[in-house]
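so my prof wants the structure for this chain in the tokens format not the other one, which i didnt know existed until like an hour ago. anyway here's the sequence
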Amino acid sequence: MDLVAAARAGLAEAGDPVRAGEMQRYMKSDMPFRGVAKPARAALTKSLFAEFDLPDRESWLAAVTALWRAAEYREERYVALDLLGHKRYTHWRDIDLLPLHEELVVTGAWWDHVDELANRHVGPLLAAHRAELTPVLLDWAVDPDRWKRRVSVICQLGAKDETDTDLLAAAIEANQDDPDFFLRKGIGWALRQYARVEPGWVLHFVDAHPGLSPLSRREALKHLS
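here's what i got, hopefully its the right format
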């Protein structure tokens, strides 16, 4: 049995049909759940990833994409993201994975998938390859896909004092008039996080952008007097 098959079997065994329905309703997911809570999934993946040490980059990416693309239950996609972000394979994560990240953002198309991709994958790539990725993320900021736009807004949540404020401002300005809840919430989240580092910049930005939605404004100023 390979990693993909073992993951599916492990999720099936750990599943709880009652919890599955609750999880699907909470997540508003078209794809059903097995009903595996996060701690149980973490225990499963820890065991699986220790047992199956993938020998090369091709095997790693093949397992990630098989789990994701052929998923019948949402937890299979969670395991795909767990595998994509596992510390053992950090040295294989490079800028050439951006098309895969884009695929996962567009096909994942919900906050649980998209936020992890933005913060654990696209953000670190941006930090390592600013010259190459900044133009891409500026394009994502005006893309028809709302989830790519959300990534452009929130991908610097962990950047702290290395935040590219020009990129942050451009991504927000491109989306501040959009009525979508996830974009408005994401704008507020990005500003609130940067306010931990540069509260004055955030206060000035909010004052200079009266078109920000009440939700974005409230979230941005949440911890500022």
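also thought this was worth mentioning. The mean pLDDT is 97.
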